[in-house]
């Protein structure tokens, strides 16, 4: 049985995943205001992924007989200096999420809650991908600098991004 403390932290993470979706929607809004629709699409898709992550935790809490508790959260940042600033802040946000998942896994390990440890492995693997994606885009944007043609090409590339939820129970 999952402890009260672990259940609280799972609920906190679920709510943080919902908050992350709002962070990425705010970033999408900034990109759209700069007429960078491909970048905006990237963040809209990212928000969909974060909502999927939140619902994955929501369902796990329910499956384990816990009580899902939805909470409010702070307003996300809406103003950025540049497209590079947006992605640097996105990478920093993903690093926070990674640390939160690690802390949650550490608590599950301490409590020897093996089902939760197994469940969280998916999130650990997902965070490797998330940080890699953001890190790669930061590097590309740093190389692009003021090259508007390269920025346009990357914007066009990111307009093709879609979200397809995993079809297997992971």
Short description:
This protein is an all-alpha fold and 170 residues long. Helix content is 75%, strand content 0%.
Structural features, described:
The chain is mainly α and 170 residues long. The chain has a single domain, classed as Ferritin, core subunit, four-helix bundle (Ferritin, Up-down Bundle). It contains 5 helices and no strands. Helix 1 runs antiparallel to helix 2, helix 1 packs antiparallel against helix 3 and helix 3 runs antiparallel to helix 4. The longest helix is centred in the C-terminal third of the chain and has 31 residues. It is elongated.
What is the helix tally?
Answer: 5
Distance between the termini: 21 Å
| Category by helix and strand content | mainly alpha
What is the element string, with H for helices and E for strands? HHHHH
Rough outline: elongated
Mean pLDDT figure: 96
CATH architecture: Up-down Bundle
The total of beta strands comes to: 0
**Beta-strand residue fraction:** under 5%
Q: What is the name of the CATH topology?
A: Ferritin
Unreliable stretches (pLDDT < 50, length at least 5) are none
Helix content: over 70%
Into how many domains do the coordinates divide?
A: 1
CATH superfamily membership? Ferritin, core subunit, four-helix bundle
Radius of gyration: 17 Å
Essential attributes:
170 residues; Ferritin
Q: Topology, pairings included?
A:
Layout: H1 4-33, H2 37-63, H3 83-110, H4 114-144, H5 148-158
